């Protein structure tokens, strides 16, 4: 994203993480990671108890509010990698 949107994105992502972790059962982890080489690139590392918890998050108000807020300036690419926590 453009540098001018960086802090706004961080606030929105961290708010989504706080709200989701506090209010959505099954949210195990929600981390915002800043790219070491490009401070305007971020990764969200999220973990959920199961597929139902992930679906609940995707349909919930915090997910919607986050994407409503960042949709005007967020730039791709976007990836979604699903897996199972083994440890």
From TrEMBL:
Pfam families in alphabetical order: ABM
Region (Disordered): 1-26
InterPro entries: ABM_dom, AI-2_Isomerase_LsrG, Dimeric_a/b-barrel
GO cellular component terms given for this protein: cytosol
SUPFAM superfamilies, alphabetized: Dimeric alpha+beta barrel
GO molecular function per UniProt: oxidoreductase activity
Residue ranges annotated for the ABM domain, each copy included: 1-85
PANTHER family for this protein: (4S)-4-HYDROXY-5-PHOSPHONOOXYPENTANE-2,3-DIONE ISOMERASE, QUINOL MONOOXYGENASE YGIN-RELATED
The protein's name in its UniProt record: ABM domain-containing protein
């Amino acid at each position: 994203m453009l540098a001018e949107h960086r802090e706004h994105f961080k606030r929105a992502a961290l708010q989504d993480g706080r709200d989701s972790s506090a209010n959505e059962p099954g949210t195990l982890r929600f981390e915002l990671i800043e790219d070491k080489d490009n401070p305007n690139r971020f990764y969200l590392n999220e973990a959920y108890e199961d597929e139902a918890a992930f679906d609940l998050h995707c349909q919930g108000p915090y997910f919607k509010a986050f994407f409503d807020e960042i949709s005007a300036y967020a730039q791709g690419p976007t990836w979604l990698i699903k897996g199972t926590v083994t440890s």
